[in-house]
Specification:
alpha/beta; seven-stranded mixed sheet; 12 strands; 327 residues; single chain; 34% helix; Purple Acid Phosphatase, chain A, domain 2; five-stranded mixed sheet; 7 helices
């Protein structure tokens, strides 16, 4: 009788513990896309091939990192509504979208043929893309930042995810054509501060929930800058607009000491950068995703925290093309 009771207790213990261990080491697969379509031919490819492939893949969610049109295309209401419809068709349920510079900071360019205020374009974009939120699963604990609805945070199977609003044009600091520059830069400063809070909160929540990895999606290639100033002034326009973000991210990733992935589009390189974090943040990886004019496809991303050597694996959705191993 004692043996039977002990055996029953052991089986009950295994039944109780095993699901937690399985969940904690679970592999997560999702898809991401950005920087498309930039032309009529790319739009046809997107509609006829990529979107059907995404729907057939049936991942839990899609992350879209912006640049939903070419930088020279007009930001008319009709264009943006068309792009919104395309994005919402890319997944049957959940799309997490963070905008790119093509989607608002470039809207004041003369070559668009219809230059308009970039700040007004951002306001319209927010009202179009974030007015109606889907009913996310409660277990995901989806949160969005006040005044910055594009900044979201969620958890899926012990992996923490977040979007942050970082864009090209040096994070919105240059090429301000139709807005008051002082006011526009003050809005950049406010967005930087909001991003700082959101990033800090993300890592704190990940620590509190003991998640096993973090994935952060932005639009901008934060390594692509032509400035050396460290942005120590209050409202800089001619320095590295991503300096403070990179410094904060590397410090947070080093302290977290678990796999962290910075996922972005913006530039045409299709590559994995394992040296981005440096020696102190050796578990911080950077992935420059597909799109633009190089690899025209969505990307399948596998997060496998139990594999310390390769916690993140990427390949193009349709052809399985792996990124270059160095950026």
């Amino acid at each position: 009788m004692i043996f039977i009771r002990a055996l029953f207790s052991f089986v009950a213990f295994i039944a109780f513990v095993s699901p937690l261990k399985a969940d904690e080491s679970a592999t997560v697969v999702f898809h991401a896309i950005s920087d498309i379509p930039y032309s009529d031919s790319q739009e046809k490819l997107l509609e006829d091939t990529i979107i059907p492939a995404l729907l057939a893949a049936q991942s839990p969610f899609l992350i879209h990192m912006g640049d939903i049109k070419g930088g020279g295309a007009a930001c008319t209401d009709d264009v943006m509504k068309t792009r919104h419809g395309q994005i919402m068709r890319m997944h049957s349920d959940f799309v997490f979208f963070t905008p790119g510079d093509n989607d608002w900071t470039d809207c004041d360019r003369k070559k668009t043929g219809h230059p308009v205020s970039e700040l007004e374009s951002l306001d319209k974009l927010r009202r179009l893309f974030y007015a109606n939120e889907p009913d996310y699963p409660e277990s995901w604990h989806v949160a969005r930042q006040a005044l910055y609805p594009e900044n979201k945070r969620w958890t899926y199977k012990k992996i923490s995810f977040a979007t942050l609003h970082l864009v090209g044009t040096n994070n919105g600091r240059i090429q301000i054509k139709k807005d008051d520059k002082s006011f526009a830069l003050s809005q950049v400063t406010a967005r930087d501060k909001a991003n700082k809070v959101w990033l800090r909160t993300l890592f704190q929540v990940a620590e509190d929930n003991q998640t096993n990895a973090i994935v952060i999606a932005v639009q901008a290639d934060v390594t692509d800058n032509r400035y050396n100033d460290k942005c120590t002034r209050e409202e800089p326009a001619d320095c590295d607009g991503f300096y403070k973000f990179k410094k904060q991210l590397r410090k947070a990733a080093a302290d977290f000491n678990k796999p962290v992935l910075l996922l972005h589009g913006d530039t045409s390189a299709y590559c994995m950068d394992r040296q981005f974090g440096g020696e102190k943040a050796s578990k911080l990886w950077r992935f420059n995703s597909a799109g633009d004019y190089k690899v025209l496809d969505a990307v399948k991303i596998t997060v496998q925290p139990s594999n310390p050597d390769t916690p993140f694996k990427m390949e193009s959705l349709r052809e399985g093309i792996a990124p270059e191993e160095r950026c």
